[in-house]
L-aspartate oxidase (Billgrantia aerodenitrificans), 532 residues
Amino acid sequence: MAPSILARSEHDVLVIGGGVAGLTLALHAAETRRVTLVRPANDDQGASRWAQGGIAAVLSPQDDFDAHVADTLVAGDGLCDERAVRFTVEQGPGAIEWLLSLGVPFTRDDSPTASYPYHLTREGGHGTRRIIHAEDATGRAVLDTLKRHAEGHAAITIRDDLVAIELLSDSENRCRGARCLDEQGQLQELVANDTVLATGGASGIYRHATSPHPASGEGMMMAAELGAELMNLEFQQFHPTCLFDPEGPPFLISEAVRGEGGRLYSTDGRRFMPELDPRAELAPRDIVARAIDAEMQRTGSPHVWLDVTHLGETAIRHHFPTIHAHCLGRGLDITRQPIPVVPAAHYSCGGIATDPDGRSSVPHLYAIGEVACTGLHGANRMASNSLLECLVFARSCAARLAHAEATAPASLTPSHSGSGSVDAERIQQWRLRMRSVMSQHVAIVRRDAGLEAAADELDALIHEVRSAIANAAPSTALASLWHALRLARLTVKAARMRRESRGLHYNPDCPEHVKTGLTPLPSRLHLHDLSL
């Protein structure tokens, strides 16, 4: 039998996703409204926790908003929305002050020449030191602090026993909450006045990612099913330096390692970045990732080297205790040996198109964090602007929710599900096939022939999966796969539409920027563009 709806409950603000964006939104919205936070246990292993480097903000007296805006625009390669960039940058110091008030243990700078009480590091694309951090585990420090406050808040209810698989809509085409599965596989409908997606990006549609449990675009596709517009899906960022260890789990080597002087070498001993870009290892991520990929192709090696041994053991242990300890636990002493690194899928610059308050094109549906596309990142996200975006847009979204009108009652659109089942191993094989296609054809370098092949292979896979799940009962694994497959296919469509190379989208068959004299346009797609 198909799973019956175990319960239907009423909620005011429903937040789906419990990383930095979701927790920040919950804490601010709870000042005026009651919040239900659907936060599965694996949210603790999502992208927020693995954000090592820090948060970019104008904090030093030697820095200013215009400089941060300018650096972000350069990194975004002409596709940033300058209004969104300036809004984010100007709200940054206030967001950091709020985190400090909650007790986030940022690393202090006690040197007599310090112009700011906390240590500021520098990362790729930034013209100065403006990254505030908690040693080299900033995401973990921020996440744990926010989680502790949320768990103790009287107006926040945390549901860690549910996974959202579909959004609810009513007869007026408004979002009305989410359909979830509990730990027993029973359906629950959480009907809400306002729903906020904070579900992360889509790096999980690739074979190698920088976090152990990457999102695969589930939130993006749940929104698209209700008619939300998706934007800039082709701009998938690959972090240049993920630890190369085929036998172990993924582990990010922070941008701050290069910010403090780390150098990249090919396996034949050549330092290759200075000849490619005057910023060398501190060039924006798209440039560094492509350079590493090219060196790997040239040498036939599965990695390059990132060397910090010249910094000395004291500096390495002081700045990078987490990275040092982790690598040591995997048999690598980075004070004496270079680190083998490889680019890996890291951050989705595209997502659900939103305004500065997080509103999507679907009434009563909001999106914040990596699942959203605000216009801040353009064609390439600059280092440490991600947690900044999470904080700033969560706070602005909460301010909007404080004055939002309640949803008038309307009939909900019914769900449809079967009673059969699909073998878990078969689901995993489908997912591996999808990831293989995306990594082979839609990664750091894309070509027309490869994109065409990816479209054909994904179309065939979608038809196969659709046929198998037509009468299947819902499951979290099946729902995630179905969302991921369609998101992957839309990503290929977006990449084929962009007849130029820009930022993270590099196609040797059309290597130049389109020069029309006009502002470059974002790519915009809806679910109906996926005609199969």
Remarks:
- The CA atoms of residues 195 and 365 lie 5 Å apart.
- The chain has a mean pLDDT of 93.
- The first strand starts at residue 5 and ends at 16.
